[in-house]
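Field log, afternoon session.

UNIT: design team B
ACTIVITY: writing a sequence onto a fixed backbone
BACKBONE:
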């Protein structure tokens, strides 16, 4: 038996076994799965600092203590299937953490300090009570897998999460998502599972390549599940029985076929230029511009212009196109955003053989 690994799962422990103190200098992996442990005591964090792997899945733990940061060598932490309601800010100090498993708890949110976990590769958060995710999560530059399934109260995921440089797998099925991102990291993403959210009313074109194998399995919106948050604009599409939901950040939404007005207010241009210059990373900028504009800049653009090679950032104004794929029996409304009427016209000119344009109006 390897003396550096303790397999103490299924032993009916009612508290953290104090016998661990006698071997704290040798043990680097501890398995305490499926016991009845109610808490992670301070002494454990202080004396087990050599641990690299800790599994406490299937216990009765109600909170993770601030002292968890003392486990400075921890690379894998599994606290799934407990009753944890919140994570401490100190979790951000676990700089060596690679895997963090928190599924099947009672988490309603995450501390922004989670964005300090630069080496984190796998984050599992399914079957919790999350209502939102902090934008700081996008600072986890090494994150490869993010699992958010079955968070019924989760209505939206920050766009920046989909653009993390290493993200390859993202799943958030059976949540209450009303909006999907118009920007994703197409270079790294291989698997995207978002489409079993029956509150979705349309699908951004950028995600269509992840949808196509399941076109015929899409279900209609279930109105009784749709929450009514404040952060969306509504569009009525003649081809759909439901109003389509768009981000409230899009203050101006234009139809290329009806409007002669061109997006391009000073605010939109300024946000676009600041984004290109990466001024959102300048902390002093927060004191120089209105807080609302700083928040918009920090969150990044809602979309990039779909016309290649334009790719201008879109913050608050856009030309909207709604389409369906021709020769497709089931109606799946796809949405595509442009920075100008010219870009929209060019895109439709090149794609008219594949997609049918749908008429729409703002509600």
């Amino acid at each position: 038996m390897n003396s550096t690994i303790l397999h103490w799962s299924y032993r009916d422990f009612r508290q953290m076994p104090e016998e661990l103190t006698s071997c704290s200098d040798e043990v680097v992996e501890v398995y305490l799965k499926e016991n009845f442990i109610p808490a992670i005591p301070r002494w454990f964090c202080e004396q087990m600092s050599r641990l690299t792997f800790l599994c406490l899945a299937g216990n009765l733990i109600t909170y993770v203590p601030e002292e968890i940061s003392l486990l400075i060598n921890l690379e894998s932490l599994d606290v799934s299937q407990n009753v944890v309601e919140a994570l401490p800010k100190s979790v951000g100090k676990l700089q060596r953490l690679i895997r963090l498993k928190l599924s099947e708890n009672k988490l309603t949110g995450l501390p922004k300090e989670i964005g300090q976990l630069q080496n984190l590769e796998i984050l599992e958060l399914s079957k919790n009570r999350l209502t939102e995710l902090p934008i700081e999560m996008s600072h986890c530059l090494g994150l490869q897998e993010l699992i958010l399934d079955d968070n019924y109260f989760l209505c939206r995921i920050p766009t920046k999460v989909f653009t993390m440089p290493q993200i390859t797998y993202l799943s958030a099925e059976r949540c209450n998502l009303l909006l999907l991102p118009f920007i994703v990291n197409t270079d790294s993403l291989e698997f995207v599972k978002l489409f079993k959210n029956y509150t979705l009313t349309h699908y951004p074109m950028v995600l269509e390549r992840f949808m196509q194998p399941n076109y015929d399995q899409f279900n209609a919106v279930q109105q009784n599940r749709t929450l009514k948050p404040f952060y969306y604009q509504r569009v009525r599409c003649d081809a759909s029985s439901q109003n389509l939901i768009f981000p409230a950040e899009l203050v101006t939404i234009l139809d290329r076929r009806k409007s002669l007005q061109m997006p391009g207010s000073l605010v939109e241009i300024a946000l676009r230029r600041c984004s290109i210059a990466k001024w959102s990373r300048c902390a002093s900028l927060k004191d120089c511009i209105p807080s609302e504009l700083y928040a918009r800049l920090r969150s990044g653009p809602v979309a990039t212009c779909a016309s290649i090679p334009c790719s201008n950032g879109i913050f608050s104004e856009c030309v909207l196109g709604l389409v369906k794929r021709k020769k497709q029996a089931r109606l799946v409304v796809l949405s595509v955003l442009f920075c100008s009427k010219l870009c929209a016209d060019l895109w439709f000119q090149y794609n008219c053989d594949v997609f049918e344009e749908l008429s729409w109006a703002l509600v």
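LOG NOTE: The radius of gyration is 23 Å.
NEXT ACTIVITY: expression trials, pending approval
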